[in-house]
């Protein structure tokens, strides 16, 4: 029983990184309609920021290894990815829909390639290792330190959730939704559409950066391989299945898809004989893909569709 | 609580139940059974490599099991592989499932170093699980070992980049090449390997042409190949994967590059030879860990062919097989001695059954039977696997000799070996040159 519990704790910790990213995407895509396909890039900025600030000193880097407290690493991760969001937003947010998607996709790939090649800071493909994990030095038992980490995740998710709920219910959130529904109308009402889009973009990127930082300090190793476009696609599937424009939907979607991702593999190995396990692995991708397609056909607004808000 | 009634929560609940049910069912089966887990890239960027590596590891475990059953010792060994999707978050989740829900204490490790490292640092070391990696060659693991991060629970059956690169340079020099150009995969393996190769080749007295990185899955590599051709190199060291390697090869031939090639272990794949054609590979030199005329390798290759009806020639087959055998042998040994099969016990036994102070034993069912008998008789053994005689250093790094191969009539033939002593000599030269 303790094993199952210990696995579930680990499962929900990993899930948290997706939940937080999904919440960050929701403010950009779900509420404002900005098609940011660069999630992995901002996640990477956060992860590297925290890793460089909190990580140990390596013999072969010229910058980093400051060994700062983890909480400081996370705050800086939010700030730095927010700044990255600002810079990216300034140059791309005048673009619409698919043009924004293509440019953010390109920027995320470029960020990944920068991480791969600036070896004196990121150690390139060799990655940053032995990163500190909160509570790991206080409690000997990995079980207890994981419980603590899960509590941190729950606290962070709750804080982000309530902050976003307040934000989207406020007049500010109403402007975001009006931009999503009809940009011209919002502009005609005297709203500075670009500024609102930029603010939502920065907020979302900061949240994604925090997810990256939390990932880095939990997994304790990051390399550019962790920030490939597959991550972005996973988060999109989560948000769409969960229900874009609904923060609870973003959370539920992340849990459902990650559970499906994880359970499908146990299920496949349970059904298939060992001789075919290697081939059957591809079934997982098919299962997740099918769920997305079925969802889009039968319930395009997601598990928890957006509620009609009256902003006060 | 509307949330509790929502479909999402129900789906989630069903998924969790499935997982729990499957683990309970498994636990209630055979009384005496050890699971050998594996987390490998079966899909994603390294999917094409992962499938045969997994099959080789499975063959290793099955053969130990057959040998064990014939002698009537130890518990049933079962192989269970999970897909890492070549993604760290998926890999750590898969490993936790194997460890927590299936009770696995030893894993055949992922392929890519970028996946193996998170697995060690967030899952296996703290859960006291031993990992035998099959193709992770990054120096990061040696550094992690030196920092005490791996607690002796990490081994790899493929030697690190630094060793492979030196061997490749020695082979190139022996082949008579004096100014090779390099094209390398822009990842840890490619970068470290080309750096090691350049140092070693210069220490041997040769010159290096351009060394050009490439990113995978591009439609064409003309600009990269054009760069490698600058300065009239006499050969090409191809640190590619097999898919992109075909494109590099094609462009190199098209631009009239000399038909002299140096191939690392990753290119040692009969699919590649079939695709580009053996007649263009007349002066291609391949390096692989192992010794010439190694009986374990020959046995493994013929058994692999029979077991899977697929070609045994290709990267990672030999190291995957040895990983499976080592874990299997360690489990049987623990059973025979009445020990537990925790990761640290297995790690200790893996050290015991390798290293030059024992009696030599080989792969294949008969060889493994003899090995188990010798262990039962209390003898110290040295497993000489498909990658050659295995000897781990304190950080789990393996040092195996190398074998050089060429293509004759569409088949690989051994043309000589490089011993560890020879590699160390060149390494000493490199150190002298750098100081």
In a nutshell, what does this entry contain?
The complex is a heterodimer of chains A (312) and B (435). Chain A is an all-alpha fold and 312 residues long. Chain A is built from 13 helices and no strands.
- Shape, principal axes of CA atoms of chain A: globular
Average of the residue pLDDT scores of chain A:
92
**Rg of chain B (CA only):** 22 Å
Q: Supply the CATH class of the largest domain in chain B.
A: Alpha Beta
- Main beta sheet of chain B: strand number and arrangement? 7 strands, mixed
Low-confidence stretches of chain B: 1-5, 24-29
Low-confidence stretches of chain A: none
Describe what you observe in this structure.
- The complex is a heterodimer of chains A (312) and B (435).
- Chain A has 13 helices and no strands.
- Chain A has 312 residues and is mainly α.
- Chain A has one domain (2-228).
- In chain A, helix 1 crosses helix 11, helix 6 crosses helix 7 (171-181) and helix 10 crosses helix 11.
- Chain A is globular.
- The termini of chain A are far apart.
- In chain A, 53% of the residues are buried.
- The mean pLDDT of chain A is 92.
- Chain B has two domains: 31-158 and 296-389, Rossmann fold, CATH 3.40.50; 161-281 and 402-434, 3-Layer(aba) Sandwich (Rossmann fold).
- Chain B has helices spanning 2-5, 7-27, 47-71, 88-102, 113-124, 140-146, 161-174, 188-203, 222-229, 242-254, 270-276, 295-308, 317-336, 343-352, 364-376, 420-434; strands at residues 33-40, 76-83, 106-109, 130-133, 154-156, 180-185, 211-214, 235-239, 260-263, 283-289, 359-362, 381-385, 388-389, 402-408, 411-418.
- Chain B has a seven-stranded mixed sheet, sandwiched between helices. A five-stranded parallel sheet of chain B has the order 2-1-3-4-5, with helices on both faces.
- Helices cover 49% and strands 18% of the residues of chain B.
- With 435 residues, chain B is of the alpha/beta class.
- In chain B, helix 8 links the parallel strand 6 (180-185) and strand 7 (211-214).
- The radius of gyration of chain B is 22 Å and the shape is globular.
- Chain B starts with a helix and ends with a helix.
């Amino acid at each position: 029983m303790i094993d199952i519990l210990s696995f579930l704790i680990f499962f929900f910790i990993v899930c948290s990184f997706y939940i937080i990213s999904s919440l960050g995407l929701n403010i950009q895509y779900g509420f404002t309609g900005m098609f940011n396909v660069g999630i992995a890039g901002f996640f990477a900025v956060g992860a590297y920021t925290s890793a460089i600030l909190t990580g140990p000193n390596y013999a072969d880097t010229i910058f980093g290894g400051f060994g700062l407290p983890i909480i400081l690493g996370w705050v800086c991760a939010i700030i730095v990815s927010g700044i990255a969001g600002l810079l990216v937003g300034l140059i791309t947010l005048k673009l619409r829909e698919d043009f924004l998607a293509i440019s953010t996709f390109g920027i995320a790939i470029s960020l990944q390639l920068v991480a791969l090649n600036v070896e004196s800071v990121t150690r390139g493909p060799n990655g940053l290792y032995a990163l500190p994990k909160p509570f790991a030095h206080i409690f000997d038992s990995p079980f207890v330190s994981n419980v603590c980490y899960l509590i941190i995740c729950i606290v962070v998710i709750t804080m982000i959730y309530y902050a976003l709920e307040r934000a989207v219910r406020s007049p500010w959130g109403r402007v975001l939704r009006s931009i999503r529904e009809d940009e011209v109308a919002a502009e005609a009402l005297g709203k500075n559409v670009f500024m609102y889009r930029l603010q939502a973009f920065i907020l979302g990127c900061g949240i994604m950066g925090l997810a990256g930082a939390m990932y880095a300090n939990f997994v304790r190793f990051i390399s550019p391989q962790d920030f490939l476009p597959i991550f972005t696609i996973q988060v999109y599937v989560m948000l769409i299945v969960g229900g874009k424009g609904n923060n609870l939907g973003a959370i539920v979607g992340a849990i459902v898809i990650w559970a499906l991702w994880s359970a499908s593999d146990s299920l496949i190995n349970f059904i298939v004989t060992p001789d075919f396990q290697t081939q059957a692995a591809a079934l997982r991708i098919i299962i997740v893909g099918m769920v997305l397609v079925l969802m889009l056909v039968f319930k395009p607004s997601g598990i928890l569709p957006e509620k009609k808000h009256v902003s006060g | 609580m509307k949330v509790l009634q929502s479909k999402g929560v129900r789906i989630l609940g069903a998924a969790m139940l499935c997982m729990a049910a499957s683990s309970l069912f498994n636990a209630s089966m055979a009384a005496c059974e050890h699971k050998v887990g594996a987390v490998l890239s079966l899909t994603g960027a390294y999917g094409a490599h992962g499938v045969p590596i997994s099959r080789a590891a499975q063959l290793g475990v099955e053969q130990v099991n057959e040998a064990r059953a014939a002698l009537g010792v130890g518990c049933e060994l079962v192989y269970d592989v999970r897909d890492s999707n070549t993604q760290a978050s998926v890999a750590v989740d898969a490993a936790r499932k194997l460890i927590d829900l299936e009770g696995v204490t030893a894993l055949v490790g992922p392929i890519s170093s970028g996946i193996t490292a998170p697995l060690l640092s967030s899952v296996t070391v703290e859960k006291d699980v031993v990992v035998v990696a099959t193709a992770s060659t990054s120096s990061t693991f040696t550094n992690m070992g030196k920092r005490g991060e791996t607690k002796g629970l990490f081994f790899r059956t493929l030697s690190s980049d630094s060793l492979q690169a030196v061997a490749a340079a020695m082979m190139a020099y022996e082949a008579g090449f004096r100014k090779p150009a390099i094209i390398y995969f822009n990842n840890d393996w490619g970068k470290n390997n080309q750096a090691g190769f350049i140092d070693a080749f210069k220490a041997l007295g040769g010159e290096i042409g351009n060394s050009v990185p490439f990113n995978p899955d591009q439609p064409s590599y003309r600009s990269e190949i054009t760069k490698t051709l600058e300065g009239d190199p006499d050969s090409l060291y191809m640190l590619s994967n097999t898919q992109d390697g075909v494109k590099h090869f094609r462009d190199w031939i098209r631009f009239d590059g000399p038909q002299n090639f140096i191939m690392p272990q990753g290119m040692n794949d009969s699919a590649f030879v079939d695709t580009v054609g053996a007649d263009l590979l007349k002066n291609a030199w391949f390096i692989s860990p192992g010794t010439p005329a190694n009986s374990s390798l020959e046995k493994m290759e013929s058994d692999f062919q029979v077991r899977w009806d697929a070609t045994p020639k290709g990267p990672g087959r030999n190291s995957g097989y040895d990983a499976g055998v080592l874990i299997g042998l360690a489990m049987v040994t623990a059973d025979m001695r009445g020990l537990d099969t925790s990761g640290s016990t297995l790690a200790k036994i893996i050290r015991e059954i390798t290293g030059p102070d024992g009696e030599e034993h080989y792969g294949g069912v008969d060889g493994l039977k003899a090995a188990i008998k010798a262990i039962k008789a209390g003898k110290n053994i040295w497993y000489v696997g498909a990658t050659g005689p295995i000897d781990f250093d304190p950080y789990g790094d393996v040092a195996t000799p190398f074998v050089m191969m060429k293509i004759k009539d569409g088949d690989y033939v051994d043309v000589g070996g490089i011993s560890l002593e020879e590699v160390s000599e060149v390494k000493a030269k490199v150190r002298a040159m750098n100081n």
